[in-house]
Amino acid sequence: MKKIRVGLIGATGYGGVGLIELLINHPYVTIGALMAKHDINKPISAIYPHLKGFCDLLVFDPSDPDCPDDFDIVFYATPDGVGQKEASKWLNNGVKVIDYSGDFRFNDKDSYASYAARIGKAKEHADPDILPNSIYGLPELHRREIASSDLVGNPGCFAVSCILGLAPALKFGLIDSKDIIFDAKSGVSGAGKTPSPMFHFPARYEAVNAYKVTGHQHVYEIERELAGLRQSKEIKITFTPHVIPVSRGIITTIYANLLPKVNLDSLRNAYSSMYSEEPFIRVFSHGEILNTTDVRGSNFCNISLNIDSRTGKLIAISLIDNLVKGQAGNALQNMNIMMQIEETTGLMYPGSFP
Amino acid sequence: MKKIRVGLIGATGYGGVGLIELLINHPYVTIGALMAKHDINKPISAIYPHLKGFCDLLVFDPSDPDCPDDFDIVFYATPDGVGQKEASKWLNNGVKVIDYSGDFRFNDKDSYASYAARIGKAKEHADPDILPNSIYGLPELHRREIASSDLVGNPGCFAVSCILGLAPALKFGLIDSKDIIFDAKSGVSGAGKTPSPMFHFPARYEAVNAYKVTGHQHVYEIERELAGLRQSKEIKITFTPHVIPVSRGIITTIYANLLPKVNLDSLRNAYSSMYSEEPFIRVFSHGEILNTTDVRGSNFCNISLNIDSRTGKLIAISLIDNLVKGQAGNALQNMNIMMQIEETTGLMYPGSFP
Amino acid sequence: MKKIRVGLIGATGYGGVGLIELLINHPYVTIGALMAKHDINKPISAIYPHLKGFCDLLVFDPSDPDCPDDFDIVFYATPDGVGQKEASKWLNNGVKVIDYSGDFRFNDKDSYASYAARIGKAKEHADPDILPNSIYGLPELHRREIASSDLVGNPGCFAVSCILGLAPALKFGLIDSKDIIFDAKSGVSGAGKTPSPMFHFPARYEAVNAYKVTGHQHVYEIERELAGLRQSKEIKITFTPHVIPVSRGIITTIYANLLPKVNLDSLRNAYSSMYSEEPFIRVFSHGEILNTTDVRGSNFCNISLNIDSRTGKLIAISLIDNLVKGQAGNALQNMNIMMQIEETTGLMYPGSFP
Amino acid sequence: MKKIRVGLIGATGYGGVGLIELLINHPYVTIGALMAKHDINKPISAIYPHLKGFCDLLVFDPSDPDCPDDFDIVFYATPDGVGQKEASKWLNNGVKVIDYSGDFRFNDKDSYASYAARIGKAKEHADPDILPNSIYGLPELHRREIASSDLVGNPGCFAVSCILGLAPALKFGLIDSKDIIFDAKSGVSGAGKTPSPMFHFPARYEAVNAYKVTGHQHVYEIERELAGLRQSKEIKITFTPHVIPVSRGIITTIYANLLPKVNLDSLRNAYSSMYSEEPFIRVFSHGEILNTTDVRGSNFCNISLNIDSRTGKLIAISLIDNLVKGQAGNALQNMNIMMQIEETTGLMYPGSFP
Q1: What's the fold here for domain C4-155+326-338?
Q2: Distance from B287 to chain D by nearest Cα, in Å?
């Protein structure tokens, strides 16, 4: 089989290196070029020494005329605002694009504008005409559309955790869609590679905090995706992110009011119905303790289902590795689907413990 | 002033050593004896070397006839079931008693029975006759009763965090009392000193998990105390504890539905009205990031108030050090009140950072 | 190719699970049975949930008559004293044996006795007759003997780090062999899976200590292997292990006096001469900062060479992942060699960062 | 007693906040002003929220004409190069000065030049005339000179650990002074408050590394102080610093060759002779495990003495909290001595565990 030639822009951040780690053992891929804004001309293994001998490619400035551009697919592991300016150029040349940021998570310009406002970016999308062609890259909800798309917006890490954790309960009408709370706790790597006072080791090792209370930008994609499952007119969620002193992992505790007569069996059936064929979702029941380390370094989402019979609430707990299923792993899963190869290729690792 | 002579049973656990650290610099206290079931005849500084030179008292078996018993007050820093068997003996001799466990948090035998069932203990209290004399030792709610009591049940660490974080909103009728969620995250020291597979360093350093989902025993005292604030017939809460890989600290994120016309000002007024004279409570507003390290090593409870205007919810965040305001510090605060000395004596430390 | 059928005894410890993680993606291996003393009849994925779907084999009691025994090779991921009692049984049936403990690191009974005394075990080896057939399983020093052996003693994790870090300097006669200091720092997983007060999260997260100062048992194998490189009559080393609050990783700082005229070039040449063809050793020069995370999760040993010209000393720094190159990875490397397959099969992973 | 009026320059770094934490409970001190280059006009408690209610002083720009300057003593908790430009101004007005940096650790300009070269600073001291009046602020070696000095250079944190750990062995001539190795491991707070890629939480939480191998600047003051103990012509040491993922703590493992007939008793006698009256030094013997947490948050230095009889070496282990005995605590100890008050005032805390 001819190898898929991959271009990676934003190769030196956590999202980039996470993808490189997966690609070097992917049987059908060759890395065509690594690109970034900083550390130009350095071997990637000088920045990430664990890659020495595995991948010693030099980092290109993507505007360098010598930079290769004969790719089959390009990943933008870049912040918001980069991919939207360049995607058309690739698409017009028959190169598929997967973008990690929010640039292509909204397929109309108004939704994008609301999102952009919340992160302090310009409300106008740089290339609104291609938005309708973009697909929200969560395979468990949009596998078929992804397979026939050339442009995929990889979901936000919190959004993956929230949507997968609650989708079946909404889809099968088991909960009140008006009152849903997501209490999410994320490891520090979710904030990326750039040092800051809040993530300086001495300030963080014993510190937990909530942040962006009531104001996190992932709220939009979560509400949109959940609403789409049930033709609800509107879903409004409460979402509170926290930072915890681990490197990797998101655990989201989800609270919703059960509709009458819903019990643990109906819940299990709903989740099983939606997820039993999913290669990367594992569902557990009340009483089993799920731990972020159970999904650390893997592309899995673990979900546990609990009912608080005293208050009639569903308490679903959803766990992912924010850098794998929440980012590079999910992006690679999208690539496999878009390139029509077995979806799990290069992703079937359990992670390591401890 | 004649020094207060303190007996400490359960001296070798985290709750014991935390109290010793405070007592050695308390100007009006002398430690009469340290007692425990294990490590008998060892100096406490052989178990906790940081105390060497500060406190080198030997650990007594409390049943040893040579063990001193001429105390003014006795602390039971022991698990459930110990203090209830012995409290009467002290009380009958005019010695006051503070118990860290659930033994004296419920002043009638039926409430105790519900609590005991949840932790797998015998439902019968060993000394039900003295229960009516016991006071729930949360000074912010029961300062006056504590001052005139000889028998105080120190609250559970989660309960301190939950109750203090929400009390004013309930007391002043700002929220719907029927739908309250406490999502609590605790450091590992809350589980005590005994090693276990879940708290083994390699298994825990990157691990976060929920546990006792829908089944934690602190629910009872939280519901009872909150109901008492508003003469509500009944309050039923949803409470989910999590363990995070820090040593000290509880952060509880509290969700409740605001009643009509309640805004941030009404909330601030309520909290200020109830807490402005409290020496150990600090209230913050939306947008200020609170961190468990802000209260680490101190007896303070920090609270932030937020409103999610999209969903009409209060999101209150409450932080304590589980071993200080959640345990030894609060116990010492109770002692100061019971002994009629200035309530903050020996407790006015800010902790250290980083 | 017919798959190699592996039996794993001690499957539920860190050394066991580390091997399972590697074996499930090894193209030429099938796991015949997992065996352990505890957790019998549980699926291994109930003990290590990250393995769910990857390996759900039940744990057998090895004495259970239903336990499979048709293996090509057996791993003893067990403490000292287990493998020596059972190895002959397998060897007599044509099954090869790799033992993680010290049971087969010494091929004469007197050396074994000195070692055993230091760890408080009986000095008599249970099966001294097979000792002469055992090979010390460090491929970089004994590849050829391992290839033709049926019985391999996998080295101690500290020993791997110390021996690989200094071997070329000794082999090529660049240092004074009489005065060598190894200052080693290990992550907590080196102490295994069993909880203990010293490795309880709250007691360990901020704690560093030296232990077994002057008395660690790995000294013997280090001295024996180093002496073998240079036909030295005797080498006596100073070795101080420390525990640091990381999960994985050993960094050993090695001090030795350089012989006259030795400079950085001669050192580099020596290391290059011995290691340039080694698949799992990477050598770095003065000024490059090496980090335990550079080898975390991989089978690599990274070494940096430095000269303190003020004092005429070599300062070599050697890093491994104690659970991979220091244990399961090195054991698998031995298996590949013993089974005459490509030595790096199933081991070429870079680990993940961060 | 009239309170000592303290000025603190560099109040917003770790060295500043560490001193504030101590000063707020010091019975004879009042803080006259907090000064810094950044965060001007903010309350210090906005930067360090744990101080809220304890110290809410605004931060002054020291060049602000409204900034108070009526101090009895000034602390420079600033980087190298700041204090040397301003000390004379204070001294001429009768204000004593303690500087945390290397600016006043060398009392002649040539020694200073060697030191400055190693940290990449200008070799010329800004005020060489006052250098001869400065005293190296290690009370255990220079208590008398400190008491009569107006200008004290607080020692480097590594230097405190190294010098205190070995001084008696050198002073009493028990070791070969030509071959001494200090293998030091420090927590991350030693690098200060400024974020950097190496100390970003995800990059550091599992990472240990050596750095400045053979090139750390503390070597000079260690050699000078050790030489002064024995009228040695020259002492050359080997010093290797490491960074470990803890916030606070230095553990230094010291290797030296014992002179003939020196045994554990002679060592103990030497350390006891020099240290038995020292309020902040605790000496332990072989076999007792010392842990950085034993001195965490306190001004103590713990030392353990071990002999490797196989190789004839002393292995001394020295532990401090780098931010207390290694910085702010030692500085306050100097202040107490300079102001003729009881040396331990405001410093007698054991720290807290866990």
Answers
A1: Rossmann fold (3.40.50)
A2: 13
